[in-house]
Amino acid sequence: MAQKASPYAIRLGYNQIWNNYFFPENKQDQLNWLERDKLIRDYLQQVFPDTTQLRIEYNKNNIFIYLYIPEINLVLGENNEKIEKVMKNIYSRINDVKISVKINLIEVKNIYGHAQSIANLISGQLKKRLSYRLIIRDILSKLSLDREAKGIKIELSGRLDGKEIAETKKFVQGKMPLSTIDSNVEIGFSEVVTTYGTIGIKTILYKGKIWQTNKNYANTTKKN
Question: I need a labelling partner for 116 at 20 to 30 A (CA). Which of 52, 68, 70, 217 fits?
Fold first, then answer.
């Protein structure tokens, strides 16, 4: 039978980076850090559902959180009240006074240039009970104007538009070379809970070959 692997997992260490970094000295430290990572990620994704990417780095005394989000002002709140409340809740979940937590906010300007932000956009519009066909049609039309996106695949699963039987719909536009390792591929997941059930969303975005920019840079340097 065919074996399917995540496009992100098979490219780790080649053209994709890890979303968390920690180097435990023993198994107990590894278990503790994994538990902390799960608590922090679940809480931040619950508070900020529009998060495009969440990267966390750990060492013995510090936790560095890199939060990629479209609108930073919504995260900060008035007079940074919201971010301070988030910090307090993270400390209460970690339950360790010796560890210092630092949050770095990185603004995502082009929401159509990331697979996770597209999945978040679809889930937000499905919550408003918009037709999934209109949502997909609008996203595909805007992606056709984006030079960075070479291809996209969107998959929706559940009771779409309140139908009695759950179904899976797939939409593909442009190129999608998933088996080519040097392809720059991003993947995003999201879920939306509606009155008629839960709908799963998966998006795969193809941005071209990862080494094309390096080749263009090498050609320009040779000419100079």
Answer: 217
Distance CA 175, CA 24 (A): 40
Say if strands 100-107 and 62-69 run parallel, antiparallel, or are unpaired.
Answer: parallel
Superfamily of domain 130-212: Ribosomal protein S3, C-terminal domain (3.30.1140.32)
d(Cα 9, Cα 32) in Å, to the nearest integer? 23
H/E stretch holding 206 reads strand 197-209
- The CATH code of the domain at 15-107 is 3.30.300.20
- Structure confidence by residue, pLDDT tens digits, 109-127: 888 889 999 999 999 999 9
* The residue type at 125: Q
Quote the CA–CA distance of 186 and 8 in Å, as a whole number.
7
With H, G, I as helix, E, B as strand and everything else as coil, classify residue 65.
strand
Largest CA distance in the chain: 64
Average pLDDT over the chain, rounded to whole? 85
